[in-house]
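Work package 3, deliverable 3.1, input record:
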Amino acid sequence: MSERIEIKIDRDMCKGCGICIKYCPKEVLARSEDLNQYDNHYPEVVSADKCISCRRCELYCPDFAIEVKEVKDEKEEKE
Amino acid sequence: MITAEEIREKYVRNHPSPFCPGCGGGMVLNAMSRAVESAGIDKKDVVAVSGIGCAAWIPSPHWRVDTLHTTHGRAVAFASGVKIADRDLEVMVVSGDGDCAGIGGNHLLHGARNNIDLNVIMVNNGLYAMTGGQVAPTTEHDEKTLTTPYGNPASSFEVAEVVKAAGASHVARWTTYHMKELVKEVEKAVDTKGFSFIEVLAQCPTRKGKKEGMTGIEMLEWYKENTSKDQDSEKMYVGTFCDVERPELTEEIYRQIERLGGE
């Protein structure tokens, strides 16, 4: 049974400080072009497959806006 | 490990917080919530006391525990009262450097001398941020602030060393760059019987960063490069300053009451 890593970003909680982007060791995140409701550039997942689930972004985020979850892959479970 | 969403549901209220983008305040809130969770304390037993300033807004109203928002500099004094009234409570004091070391400096010294079982987290950003960035006792020598535009003529206060000399049981210093260590240190402070003092160097990108042309991330990088866990290094020391056992005030008071036959 394999596990999939899911990165959940709450766009409207983000203040666009960029700390998660800076401290990601694998450069998974990047600054978005779009703006959220408070006119901040939130982070976007650009290479999800590189994520090692160290959860550093989650630990450093001052606004609890990013979360790394390990989700069990349902498709394989059915097989 | 607790997830961000769980922390938000269990420990945080009134979100998003009023802190500026990149402020260290939210990171301290994150560290405290994680420490209380991993120490296994019921949040109903936690009381957070804060004074006035940006850092005082970290627990009150944003931390979902019982909070007391008190007068400027008097957080340690109020917290002492809470602890003596009910010694089963876990009392946390979150205070800024101007509040804790400046205006409430004397309360801090006597709290440490009494060695009362409080957990004091001093969020040190090096100036009075909420009122516009005036010089504080923790502002470095020659640093420019709103009231010292040509550089601070005075020297800064080594608060951790002072509190250690005053007699606290547990003294440590970390920065917001050292999040993992900070969570463990808060957990250790909660376990310590006696006065625990943690100085957290936290970035202020608005009042301090703009004056020096630095963003929040650049300030975090500065902490990374200019601090060391080696006590003999020339860089600023981060880590535990002391961890000793000394008689604790509330325990001594209750023992005295028992000896004198009171209830």
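The two ends of chain A are 10 Å apart (CA to CA).
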